[in-house]
């Protein structure tokens, strides 16, 4: 939306039946609120805008997404919503690992820039992984009794050196500190032996 002192004419393409044309911001910029602050509303809107959502039901598009990226099928995968809040959603950690590898190989820096950085202000990682701001980028997930973290540990040059996926279900208390300690240990291990 552009607000100007007087209306600006917008040229419309010559087509029968066209009443309005809207030019969206680039998808990367629309994805930032969804990824960095975990906006569930944005996730649902983006799914609706891509045609993945019709009349209260998600279309079975995930198998074709995996196939288009050359990834193996996940027979148990189910998407009940786009934001990940439904307990009916199903995806194996191995599938997320394959998606992380494929996303980095396909979109590179455009993809990596969408993910929250360790201790990034205003993101879901704010206050987490202090001192490792240039070493960890990851997406969080949480429901009552469930926590997840998936992303990359960056080498000292800022390139992904290792991807990780952690799902914790049915936790009697918050496992966040245990997850964070595990990821910190991965960074330490990578620094000790960068070839592994």
The residue ranges in which pLDDT falls below 50 over 5 or more consecutive positions are none
Radius of gyration from the alpha-carbon trace, in angstroms: 20 Å
Q: What is the averaged pLDDT score? A: 84
What is the spatial order of strands in the main beta sheet? 3-4-5
Principal-axes geometry comes out as globular
| Largest sheet data | 3 strands, antiparallel
Spatial separation of the terminal alpha carbons: 48 Å
* Helical coverage, percent range: 25-40%
Order of helices and strands: HHEEHHHEEEH
Q: Which structural category fits the helices and strands?
A: alpha+beta
Percent of sequence in beta strands: 15-25%
Number of helices: 6
Total strand segments? 5
What's the layout of helices and strands?
Elements: H1 27-36, H2 40-49, E1 53-54, E2 57-58, H3 62-68, H4 93-107, H5 109-112, E3 136-143, E4 146-154, E5 160-168, H6 176-192
Antiparallel strand pairs: 1-2, 3-4, 4-5
Helix pairs in contact: 1-2
Can you describe this structure?
With 196 residues, the chain is α+β, with helices and mostly antiparallel strands. It is built from 6 helices and 5 strands; from the N terminus they run H-H-E-E-H-H-H-E-E-E-H. A 3-stranded antiparallel β-sheet has the order 3-4-5, sandwiched between helices. A two-stranded antiparallel ribbon has the order 1-2. Helix 1 (27-36) packs antiparallel against helix 2 (40-49). The longest helix is centred in the C-terminal third of the chain and has 17 residues, at 176-192. The mean pLDDT is 84.
